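User: Quick sanity check before I run a bigger batch. Here is a single chain. Can you write out its predicted 3D structure?
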Amino acid sequence: MRKIFNFNSKWAFTKLATEIPAEMPKNWDFVNLPHCWNAIDGMDGDNDYFRGTGYYAKAFNKTDLPEADKYFLEIQGANSSADVYLNGKKIANHDGGYSTWRVDLTDNLEMMNLLVITVDNSANDRVYPQMADFTFYGGIYRDVNIICVNDAHFDLEYYGAPGIKVTPEIIGNDAKVTVEAYANNLKEGQIVKVTVYDKEENEVTSAIAVNGVANLEIKDVHLWNGRIDPYLYCCEAEILEGDFVIDNVCTRFGCRTFKIDPENGFILNGKEYALRGVSRHQDRWGKGNALSKEDHKEDIELIYEMGATTIRLAHYQHDQYFYDLCDEYGLVIWAEIPYISKHMPTGRENTISQMKELVCQNYNHPSIVVWGLSNEIGIGGSDDDLLENHRILNDMCHEMDKTRLTTIAAVSMCKMDDPYLLIPDVVSYNHYFGWYGGETNMNGPWFDKFHKMHPNIPIGCSEYGCEALNWHTSTPMQGDYTEEYQAYYHEELIKQFFSRKYLWATHVWNMFDFGADARNEGGENGQNHKGLVTIDRKYKKDSFYAYKAWLSDEKFVHLCGKRYIDRVEDVTKVTVYSNMPEVELFANGVSVGKKTAEDHFFYFEVENIGETELVAVAGEFKDCGKIRKVETFNEDYRLKEKGAILNWFDIETRDGYLSLNDKMSDVLATLQGKMLFMSLAGKLMGGKGKDGKMEAMGFEIGPDMMSMMGGFTVLRLFTLMGGMMDFKFTKEQLLDLNSKLNKIKAPKKK
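Assistant: Done. Predicted structure follows.
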């Protein structure tokens, strides 16, 4: 019977080698796997993390391995391209950094062996991803095993699949279960037996496979029903010779039905089941992608605590253990490949191989309901090659898996009539109205417009969010990176999205802050801080509890603003989140009042005198904090951009006149402001495009784009533009623009 021999310990590692060593290196560092060489430089900013080739070497004696006919090296994740050398001979190559792959070592094994694996995360034009808002961490960052099997064994070489494929079909109260078992080198007298066990490990049914297929029936089937009841069966396939087990594989599976309706959203087992949740990246502070099982378990428990019913596992294949956890916890999953941001005509074969691996390796997980074809790939428009690539992937998914649907994550700039929206079964959009331009109140109406235009296409929101660090204010505004603005933003988006049941799924971007080494913003470079929880998982931001109040059945009360103590105003706003019907707030032991709130957001006005102890009470639950009256604003609460050319508080303003701190919508509301902006656009952003239309960074500036841009302050828009273009704005240029704006009267507020 197969034996799995863990191969993680004591690898020699270097980034300095130039050739494959002939013997075990003596001057390399020793590391244990999982290992990531960008655990530090991949999240410290400036986009200067090491992207190149790392060398791993391990010497071993064949007698150290369990005795077997065949030996397969299993690598569960090495980013992004890897070559395997055994005793100096190259025996395998793999392109794709997020999936499991295996190599047959048998014919090249000697008594004493030197195994070398080179891993390369450098830029190229054939392996996805190459352009995206996250760090492409290098290393062998998941487990490595040697799988030892008999000559007759379940297939280990087909796209990293488990060798068994389980397809349940619900018929009335029963389930018909088709099991395809892929056995290699069966000899006369050897058979494949398939057995299904219930959760208590009792045998439910069994059958002998004929031509690799076994048909079984589960009477009075126990359904996998999301968080309500994530019931799992186990299917075991055995190669038997008489009573002797030659090889066996096991997989858990769930029996459920689902459909996605353009009016009623997601339907699980015949009942509406709203998919409201988060996206998740797999990295951690100081670890990069080299996570432990404990790390994965903590992630799923935090997501579960929030009350989420769905996770978008972005933007690549995640660890098999995490998919297992999703099955166990009843989270409904969107799984996708890293076909992202920039379409590469030379990368088509890689999208195909990564999709085959994703589907083959994850087919048995009941939590997965959609395969994601791409993310924001149409950011610059769709051409024929991009469309053909999507059609190939879409058709392939349907051929390989007739039980699930396909989807894409389109970006705001993608027009509602783009032909690539018609390729997948369902569609979602990434929108950041209220953070990257526009206003928060634009989100719901945008989806209403799409729904009206395409009443038969299920539409969802695959990304939305805004960044927050430990900055604070009583007057939150778009772009300030405060915890208070993030809380306000999510309050507004929750009310807009959760009231539209036609949205088939909504996914917050992101559950956790994550490494994005190209980012230099927010006061802590190298991360995207849109997480509801910090990258070290130590602090749940206030917005985490806004979702918990709407989604979780676990009763609680949360007092917001615990990190915002020093306040200058005489009367301050205090926000409380709870899923209880009534909240009472006490200030220094005196009741401020009781509030009810159907939206779970409770707002109080509190006199700010001296130091005030606050206690929020809801039923038997309470949460505490404090505020303190100060005369001047605590500068520790104010964002000061590291390396910024100009911070907003350094800008000269005139009452009644415009400045860099005003929104673009106010500037464009004046004739002089419009002329000034159009002049700058012509010089800096591409000028006239097709048919004489104005373009910015390759995008046509139509009404929708202008509406998005209108939500930015002039300073923030030009700062972001500078990060996306070769042209960088100097301090002098920005101050000159500010002096021109200072001469233009601001429009009167309506």
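Residues 687-694 have pLDDT under 50 and may be disordered.

User: Great, the batch can go ahead then.
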